[in-house]
Amino acid sequence: MPPSPDALTPDALEERIAELRAAVRRAMAAGDRGLARTLRAELRRAERAWDEAVLGDDDGHPDERPRTGAERGLLPVREQVHQALTLLGVPAAPKLIGSVYAAFFPGEIPGARLTSLRRDEERSFRAAPYARPYYLCAGLTADLLAAARGLVTVSTWPLERRIVGPLSPRTDFLTAALRVAEHAGRGDAASSPQVRRLLWRFATNIPGATDVRTTGGIGVVDPAVLAEAARAELDVHEEADRDQRRQAAERARAQLDDVELLFGTRLRAMRTAAGSPPAAAPRSRRAAASRTGTAAARKAASGRRSSASASAARRGRSATKPSGGGPGGEATPRTSRRTSGPVPPGRRPDGASNGDDR
Amino acid sequence: MTDTALALERLRGGAPPRNHDARTIAALTANPGCARRGVMDAAGVDKDAVARALGFPAQFGQSQFAITRGNAFEAKVKADGCAELLTLLRDRLGLTVPEVSYADLEVVGGNEGRELRYTRTRRLLARALESGEGTLFDHPLLRLDIAGQPAYLEPDVIAFQLGGRFHVIEIKSFAVIDGQAEPDQVAAAARQSAVYVLALRRLVTELGAPADRVSHEVFLVCPENFSNRPTASLLDVRPQLAVLERQLARLTRVDRILETLPDDLTFAPGEALADAVRAVEARYAPECMSTCEMAFFCRDEARACGSTGALGRSVRDDLGGVESIGTALALADGTMEPTPDLAETAAQLRLAARLRREALDGAA
Amino acid sequence: MSALTSLAQLQAVATGRAQPIATVRHCHLAEAPLVMVPLKLAGEAAAPLAMMLGTRPSDPTLLVVPQPRNRDLRFAFAADLAKVVLDHIEASRGSVEQLPPGRDGEERTRYSDAPQLLVPNRGGVAFLRLLGRSTRFRRTEGPYAVDAAVPALGRWLTWFGERHDHPGSSLLLAMTEVLRLHWATGQSAVEDGNLAALLGWIDPPEGMDGPAAAARAEDPVVCPPAGPATDPTFDNEVLAPAMAAYQQNAPQAEEKIRAALESQLAPTWELMWRGVRLLRALPEGASVPARWERDRDAFTHFHQTFGEGYPQARRDPPVRAARRLHELERAQESYEAQRAFDDPLVMAEHRLAGEAFGGVVTECDPTRLDETGKRPRLRPRLWVRTEDPVRLEPGTTVCSADRPALKGRVVKLAEGAVLLELTGGMGRRLTPEPGTVPQVGDRVCFTSRVADSWGVARFPDREETPWTHGGPTEDYVPTDEDAAEEWS
């Protein structure tokens, strides 16, 4: 058993670090994740020991938070998001929210906090429903009334706006373009590079929105032209989209309870808010299950009916369990989805790709 | 269960069959003449685990930089209701302005069960065929039967409909520079997309529509030059489709190979694994290293028996198809008398040997 | 590859060491070549990560981009790289040779030397090409401005890439390709792409044979890949954490990244210089200086017209493309023929194919005259006994491998013998100059593969590009769009 890292000289530590690195890499190459994890932990210990030995404590601790240059400002993240969404007026993805905020408001929204936002808001609502003037919540899909992947909305919006039908991603994009163009047209906001970039992002994807002149790659967008083009295409889809959303909203009001209206249904693990009456909840969900008609929902509903105690136990567990993909959380980032294949020694060193899809 | 199915299960050693995906299915077409691979793939054996157990792990692993880049590019293309993608489709395929409908099939109401997603995909695609409703389908789940096992395929891809036809869309993060991309990568994308086209065609046929409602042209979206801007091109995958269909048909005839194998053969882990694997003949070529997890084991075996194939197909061809290095050398130095069919090859080799000797002696 | 090289491979397997397939070195090797070992970031087209370069093994320069997605750092790297490369180019001109004036009477000069870049493998060449493409259009003013040296670097790298395609050029060489031109290993071409494995066969370390050295080379933890692609486990376990620490301004983060990348580059750096030593040990082929002279001509021309030129266009206009293709084919023919004259092992390939033959002169009539025409001409005849499978038609022109000036014609073929008539290279008189005609008992070799058998191409001027090829093209002028391309 090698001596604990603290007892080794920097040179010996460096050797140990090199050995451990090689061992971790070998373990990962052979697909032995468990071993790799253990070795990695040891590697970190050795690296920290080296840092202490060589750099000493007084060189300052590295920041735990990344210094991305964002000013924190005095606003909590949820307020920043609220402001951006209010400007946009439509359900939006975190990336767009971030870009809009950076373009029109002081500072930036720290990216890491955005991803856990919906989850945090749901927890907060369940703990004390309607305690806050607004909540940041999910968009609902029109067909299944589940949380739409990757979208954030404001609870004070009318339900029709928070529901997304098949045409809504496009109409919301166009509406967002319109709102951003209007906002940019006021005052001299149009001069900042972030605003220009944001306008360009919309304009390149709306027919008729770009001017012919482009200088330096990102062209100069005339907000009035952008607004007009967005309006023109919006006219094509707007009515159908509105109808679909209205119908879906009617269904939702009939079938969903308060939490679900904000955060979407779940067909699987059933959760009831700690505060809402258990009797009311199963009834509406049973109705929802039969109306949506999917086998799994029916099955889940019947499962619930038959084992109240089990569901109570699940309730206790699931109320605090962070969700992975699906309502209440963002879609899980795909890490190893791009399937990997065997990497031959002959190919790799010849400069063949080592990462792109094969 | 049929006899074949039983035999295949026995070969697997009772383990559950390995899940196929588009890449591994595409790889099935790589070496049609290899019985070892044919049997293992038909049985759904985890070749990676077998290779590792035999001491010849295939090195796999992808750089997280590449993964991140790929994910980021795909996210960009699909952001805001697939805004960038719609622009490309309108530009390159003439998608009309009203056609913007988007359906997300990745997560079905919080439940990510495969069966559910597949069912929902079927339903939405059926509706599209009937009423023309629907334009973009994000992450549909398709199914393809490989030797009796269903393989769930998730086009890292969006299938959509234009003028009544479905097109498979593949988003790849290798760059197209001045209109050209690395041929290897394009070829791999074509092979993989062909699998999706095939699966989609079978689904469409099951739903009662003609298979050509699925276009053989795949819409390939890649970054343009050195930027993150997407650009699109159309890939005709008819050649890849033909090869794929042929090879899948072959897989079903695996019982012919099974007949020649011992009744109790199994690839279950254990002492006898190496012998079991060797009992099924392989056809190793250096190309295997980029497509099959068993490659290093087979390479070691080929080298150990002095096979010319280990040096590459073109070398073996230069040597007139002679399989053994020892034989070729003996023919070259005249210590072996050639059989009639090898007479010409032997003469060629002897001549080559003489010329080499003359040249090297002269230079010395 | 042919039966000859394949046989050599079999012999390599049998002996456990690579076998020579050349007796001389067929490329020019500079006194102090610029060895460049690039690494690129996975998943990108040509995002440089690091490069180790230099002209002396003991003195490498290490350039690193600690955060490849940071545009400023990327272009700082490009500027640093430009300085090293452009300095090397300037220093490699040697002196200016005066040449006789050209056809139009204009003055012609040629530099006595030229720069040579050596990269590990084909991927390295491709990387330099892409790097050239991604930098040559950059602007030095306005938004996205870069250091002035960067677009210059881009144009030079693109030029080197183009010369690499030219058969017989030695300005930019990939070490694996050059080594494989001279040695045959007992492994496949795919495996030969691994520089460490290839060198393991050619020059195995103490106590190991080819296969053992190659096996060791295939372990990326022990032998980092020669690039430009990095090993994925290195990326994930070492590089990514180091870069994350850099993002968070951890102390010494940049040094740690440099150390990590150096660990991946230094072994390949050593291998490159080992390859250089092995190649230098071979005697230089007789026609190598002539080809290097062509390289020097090209270098001189590009260097002298650099100031007036524009960055190379993205695609060739049709006339230039056709001309380039023709030139390449001519150069390929020429190159292969020249190598055969320099190297009996290469000539052996032509003999195996029946396009050349070697043997002993059994009969000779050195003063034979052909009096059928208006004036008598000296036309000696020889019988050459040969065991080679001659596949030449009577009437084919051949020349002597030892002395290409000696030309002849195949008169007829018999079992194991060839009747040859000599038509030139014996002097102008009706009796041959002494020593020009082979005598009975001499070993001779004659080949039909003569260098420069193509005529000068006739191509329309650019203004007259036929309509089938899109009509006359305009000069290429780079636009702002080119300069603005963002790197992702």
TrEMBL record, chain A:
Residues 347-358 have a biased composition (Basic and acidic residues). Residues 272-358 are annotated as: Disordered. It comes from the Bacteria. Residues 272-282, 289-313 have a biased composition (Low complexity). This is Uncharacterized protein. It comes from Actinomadura rubrobrunea.
UniProtKB/TrEMBL annotation, chain B:
It comes from the Bacteria. This is Secreted protein. It comes from Actinomadura rubrobrunea. The lineage of its organism: Bacteria, Bacillati, Actinomycetota, Actinomycetes, Streptosporangiales.
Automatic annotation (TrEMBL), chain C:
Residues 477-488 have a biased composition (Acidic residues). Residues 461-488 are annotated as: Disordered. It comes from the Bacteria. This is Uncharacterized protein.
